[in-house]
């Protein structure tokens, strides 16, 4: 069996942050989103492939330097050019003669995959990971499964009126026979996401579902990213961080190298501060601040600030600030 991490999207719901950063490489504490997936795959000793695009290829190659993965790059640099998940998967697997385990690159989950892989090996049928979101309004955002025992009898991608709250969570085990069906699906120019492929497959093959019950986060928007960050952050403060005696750090936080915290600032809980930031007379919690940012007299809550920004005299809540922005309110 081979494993494929799908990381080729452009994450438009997290723009402008993800215009310059691949979503799977965003920090969650000291680790990246994709690290959580990679670590869950390591126990199996599978050959691991990461599917990405040309825009972020070098970033993934840098991430992969100390890891046992192969980076596969589709020749796109914009949302409008992307192949889509099924076409990308079809390209990656066209020369593979093996079963595959597919994992979406923006998933963070606390459960292991041992029971999922074991069930697939016992049944030898396509197996889809499911999670009960317990809310039909929330289920509208995902692929929704209707079950008969362990079998998925219907699967609807982002339905207007979900019949259940069991949703697909971007983890699929596909036998070689089904992998060979991907080009057929692509040839017919059908909707090119894996949820619609599952809908198509359910009408042709016996497809099983496997329900997980532990923590799962689909990092599709700023709120879910912050919630995942809160759940998985472990404290780290670099040795050279300067925190003056008037300031306070409330863990858990991650504060990278070269940061200065001064003049009655409060950092945390649940804050990420990137390298070489200057935080002065500011309060930052449940937020992610990338490198080389200057914050003076700023209150930041549940927000994301991209690199090389300078913000003064401002309160920001549930905001995303793009890179190199300069924002100042008068004294």
From TrEMBL:
CDD domains: NTP_transferase. Keywords: Transferase. GO terms for molecular function: transferase activity. Pfam families: NTP_transferase. SUPFAM superfamilies: Nucleotide-diphospho-sugar transferases (SSF53448). Gene3D superfamilies: Hexapeptide repeat proteins (2.160.10.10), Spore Coat Polysaccharide Biosynthesis Protein SpsA, Chain A (3.90.550.10). Residues 2-234 form the Nucleotidyl transferase domain. This is Nucleotidyl transferase. The lineage of its organism: Archaea, Methanobacteriati, Methanobacteriota, Archaeoglobi, Archaeoglobales.
């Amino acid at each position: 069996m081979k494993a494929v991490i799908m990381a080729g999207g452009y994450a438009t719901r997290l723009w402008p942050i993800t215009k310059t950063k691949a979503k799977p490489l965003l920090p969650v504490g000291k680790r990246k989103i994709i690290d959580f997936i990679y670590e869950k795959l390591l126990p199996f000793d599978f050959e691991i492939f990461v599917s990405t695009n040309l825009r972020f290829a070098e970033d993934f190659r840098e991430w992969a330097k100390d890891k046992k993965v192969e980076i596969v790059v589709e020749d796109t640099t914009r949302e409008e050019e992307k192949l889509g998940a099924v076409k990308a998967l079809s390209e990656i697997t066209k020369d593979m003669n093996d079963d595959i385990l597919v994992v979406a690159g923006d998933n963070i989950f606390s459960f292991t995959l041992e029971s999922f892989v074991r069930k697939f090996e016992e049944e030898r049928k396509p197996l889809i990971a499911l999670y009960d979101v317990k809310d039909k309004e929330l289920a509208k955002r995902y692929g929704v499964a209707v079950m008969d025992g362990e079998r998925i009898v219907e699967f609807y991608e982002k339905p207007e009126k979900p019949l259940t709250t069991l949703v697909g969570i971007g983890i699929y085990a596909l036998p070689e026979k089904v992998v060979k069906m991907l080009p057929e699906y692509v040839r017919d120019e059908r909707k090119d996401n894996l949820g619609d492929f599952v809908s198509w497959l359910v009408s042709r093959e016996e497809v099983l579902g496997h329900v997980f019950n532990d923590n799962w986060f689909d990092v599709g928007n700023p709120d879910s990213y912050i919630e995942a960050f809160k759940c998985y952050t472990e404290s780290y403060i670099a040795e050279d961080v300067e925190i003056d005696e008037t300031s306070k750090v409330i863990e858990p936080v991650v504060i990278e190298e070269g940061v200065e915290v001064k003049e009655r600032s409060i950092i945390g809980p649940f804050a990420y501060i990137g390298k070489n930031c200057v935080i002065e007379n500011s309060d930052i919690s449940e937020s992610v601040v990338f490198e080389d940012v200057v914050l003076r007299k700023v209150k930041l809550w549940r927000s994301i600030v991209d690199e090389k920004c300078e913000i003064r005299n401002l309160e920001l809540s549930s905001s995303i600030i793009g890179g190199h922005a300069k924002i100042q309110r008068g004294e």
